[in-house]
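Checklist before submission:
- one chain only
- standard amino acids only
- sequence pasted in full

Submission:
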Amino acid sequence: MVRKVAECFFGNKLFEQHLSMYRANSNVEYLFGSKPNRRSIGFDLLERESNLIFLDEFDKCPDYCYSVFYTLFDNTIFKDAYYEVNISSTLIILTSNYTSETEMRERLGLPIYYRIDKFIHFEDFSCETIHKIVGKELDDRLDEYKGYFTKDEIYSVVSKRILTSGENARTIKYKIQAVLEELLFEKFCSE
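Returned file contents:
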């Protein structure tokens, strides 16, 4: 969804951060700004090419980092220890793996929860959607297995590993990758 918003409204550009990476000290220093002339979120926001900010896996960010997001969500000027950035007219999109707004409210806490304006809950993929994603991924990767296996042969193995709930595009791609690696490895080892 974020990529589509970027494509339609922001010239295919966005500022993207994966918050699951913010558990290490160096990444915390990045969020708060540790020294002048060092990369920080403030520096990167100054250098951004788009007013679309994408913060992936917000649920994985440690709560001691929330003060950075209070500043980011509440103001038109963002400041870290060394940089000051105009962030007016930005659209900030967060993703999380919470299953409901109630869970989000409980896990994030009310101060952050009430700074989020809109919520979009995504349902599990339907079987038809999963089938389409698998088919497209297999079509996109045809060069990797053509001459060794047919699409139907790959699909018959992959379909046994993909669940009818709890899957997303990333897990489906991962399972397809694993199947392709296993089948190709078996093929070349048996020759």
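Reviewer check: Strands lie at 15-18, 52-56, 77-79, 84-86, 91-94.
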